[in-house]
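Format notes (please read before filing issues)

Several people have asked whether sequences and structure tokens are stored in separate files. They are not. Every record keeps both together, in the order shown below: the sequence lines, then the token lines. Line labels are part of the format and must not be stripped during preprocessing.
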Amino acid sequence: MINLDMLYSLIPWGGENAKPGKALAKEIGCEYRAITEGVSRLRKRGEIICADSRGFFRPSSISEIEHFVRSMKSRKREIEAAVKSAERLLHEMGGT
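Then the structure lines:
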């Protein structure tokens, strides 16, 4: 398990400075998966860590935070729809 404070300190401010997960993994000396798990843990403790095609970053503007909120809400809807479909099939097959 990686040091969350170290990971947080390596994530830059602003989307223009986004750092790829593989670069973070190389800096810390871990696998990429440990970075994504660490970001998830940081988010659970209340840190706002944004991500886009360029990499991970901490928001430095209102627009970056607004984009983060929209993105997370979209992911939530997609997950809820997938769960609803699975629950429907489970019910049809006689599960609980």
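For reference, the curators noted about this record: The first strand starts at residue 50 and ends at 52. The two ends are 35 Å apart (CA to CA).
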